[in-house]
Amino acid sequence: MLAKRLSRIEESATIRMSHIAQQLQDEGKDVLNFSLGEPDFKTPEHISEAARQALDLEYTHYTSSAGIVELREAIAKKICDENKVDASMENVIVTPGAKQAIYELMMSVLDEGDEVMLLDPAWVTFEAAVKLAGGNPKWVKRVEEAVKYESLESVVSERTKLIIINSPNNPGGYVLSEKEQHEIAEFAIEHDLLVLSDEIYEKILYGRKQVSIASFDGMQERTVIINGFSKTYAMTGWRIGYAVAPLEIMKGMLKIQQHSVTCAPSISQFAALTGLRSSQECVQEMVGEFQKRRDVIVKQLNDMGLHCVNPEGAFYAFINTLGHGNDVEFTELLLKEAYIVVTPGSAFGLAGKDYVRLSFAASMDDILEGMERIERIIS
Ligand SMILES: Cc1ncc(COP(=O)(O)O)c(C=O)c1O
Prior knowledge:
alpha/beta; Aspartate Aminotransferase, domain 1; Aspartate Aminotransferase, domain 2; 2 domains; seven-stranded mixed sheet; 12 helices; 41% helix; 14% strand; binds pyridoxal-5'-phosphate
């Protein structure tokens, strides 16, 4: 009964790992879940209060499909001021989560058989979205070393339409340097490609600077910025993301939005607006907490002989499993011997096969306990 396209994609590996954690918890096991992709903090109170007010004012109906004007304007202003990209409200579409924006983009720009370049490893949804839209992913390895122009050249073809970058990166934890992004930009211009730049972790940085590739000369007209409120404001359940795109592409995405989800949730849009317009202190506090956790994890893992690149952004440690089997073996070892849930790196692409992703969106107590358990089983 099912369409062939479904056979092209797998169940989300990250969500599957969370289900395993839940199952073990239900069986009464003392599980430490480090597979989550969402901040473990509460949504800031002033944002929740804005939603209560929106409810009292009965902002409970469909909004304009692209989003409420105030929010689109506030996003355009943020993109101009912070990301140095000359956007107006017309370029902005507010979506129910960044994921939906990614699907709408793929549906808008890909024809059957078009190719999309992905930096390997990459967050699981990119590949699925490309495939569901009829596209073919082409992988370029980018783990601990900057991507090389020649590697990009080696997979590009007549059918290549788009290249996807994601900085700060999930799962790798790296931030693309300006130099590396310039190389990618040059490549995109040379081969007349579109760029999807997923900047959803842009505020979760540890001493690094995030620059948007769309701000480079000749790039705005070929770049779609994907961003959202889930990570920055601990608002995963509110489902507010957005895209900033060249007008023609934005209109394509809007058509799909009109005929699928209609609009992003009305109350959440008002809450998100308050998040953007208010003090950003709550974001700084959350990032400060993530940084403390990152420091503990990286030090302890390295002390016990597990190599882990120091994450420069986002909240994932990408741990090399060499000496302890491959990613799947190490994941199983952690699960069976220590009730620790992580995500095997190969879920994100072949280049991740000697890594596991450990999310530090977990309490410091859990992290300390987790490090002790890991040390016990590998020593
Ligand atoms: C790179 C990246 N982009 C987008 C998303 C999804 O964001 P949203 O909750 O806005 O759909 C995630 C969530 O894990 C992510 O890691």
